Predict the 3D structure of the following.
Amino acid sequence: MKKKLPEHVTQLKSGKFRVRYKKSKKFPVEYDEVFASLEEAIQHNEEYRARNTLKLNENEIKPIRFFELCDLYLEWVEKRTRKLRSQTKKSYKKYINRLKVAIGNGYVHKMDVLFLTDILDKESKRPSEANGAEPGETISGNTLLHEYTMLKILFKKAKLWNRIKTNPMDEIEPPRFVPKEIEVPEFEELDEIEMKIMKAPIRERLQFLIGLFAGMREEEVAGLHKNRDINYEFSEMNVNTVIEQKEDGSYGEGEPKSKYSKRCIAIPERLLEVVDEYLVYRENFIRLLKIKNPGYVEKPNLFLNKDGDFYRPYRISRLWSKFAKQNDINLTFHGLRHYFITNQVNHNSEINDQEAQRLAGHASYQMTTKYVHVSKKRLNRNATKIFEQYSRVIIHKKGENIYTIPIEHVASIILGKSSLSKVNDLKITLEEMTNRKIDYFNISDIIESCKTLMVEHKPALRRLEKIKTDEKYESDNHNEELLSIISKQFGKEIDFVL
């Protein structure tokens, strides 16, 4: 069934969405805009309606006190079509309450740049209320940045709703905040970390291994269902729900962070062996629960707390922190996610950027790159590669039985487009793969032999044939773009096993 659009929102034949209001008593200002997505259209539609529902004249400012503005904003958040997660709304309320204490209930239109700058300066010196804070320790730069952002949002709405003429927050720069850099272990340490985790109690062992091998967030691990989300046939785990804290303080199931967070992640088969071992433990645990409480109804979640209820996500991080400290692993549980993504991007030549993004559950690859950290060993190992001459040794760097061929050579051979490679380097690859010396008379035969060998070992390379039909890439002017597209699909080099 086609989703019903909000009033005043229509979809055009182009696929874009139009928000239109004719001038009337209720809506004194005519409005007609086109947006690329439905979400944008709904947001602007709601903002326009909110501005006119307040019955404000475009040229008249209606004074409002700060507390009233905060309450009005939270009311708008509750009514908006695109609902926020409970945790997000809880955070908004927390920072708004802090700002109420700091600012007081004065009129918003009287709050200028100097006043708000002074407020933020005083907040930066406010004693920290965080657990474990040292005496005299002030709030973190991250907390101050969140308060600044909340102020920015509130004053933006105040101007949109005609409660102020100009927005003083436009002239205030965000506080400087440099997030603590996460350092992840080298890829070569993966086996050692896994061995340490294997010594943990069975429930924690499985939770920690999911973080290591699937890069899931703590709320995603807690939200896994034992039957629905574990696929033994294909060795996969699926993220469909999360466990989150509701506004009333209780815990329940909710939607993942974004639509991109719902994903399928391939896992090593040995992780499924740990799942089987844990399920035996879980079955015994449920049996004991039902003896203590005959009326207990089992939840489908893989992990449960001591009462058989939803497992609290923060417990996973706390247990990991204690375990990591005891076993000399310098990573938080969220750091395991960074480690997973870093390893996939830096050491898995079989996946491209979009696939790495999908594994991470991010909306864009730009976000994924923030989780990728420099490997000092890899950097030192590869920094001198530009000075190395391409040779037979490089082709067989993984052993005599494996050809490691640069993607530009593969593309040249499959597409018959020699301009994609350095001629002398391509000649070495062709001769090595066929064990024949190239001359004028046999070059076509040698190229065809290499192409046949490559396609037999990597049938997916047949997809490159489609590129031949694109006239755009016939010219050498687009060689760089062509190689970029191919590299994203197949990586920078491909291994062919003899």
About this structure: DSSP finds 19 helices and ten strands in the chain.
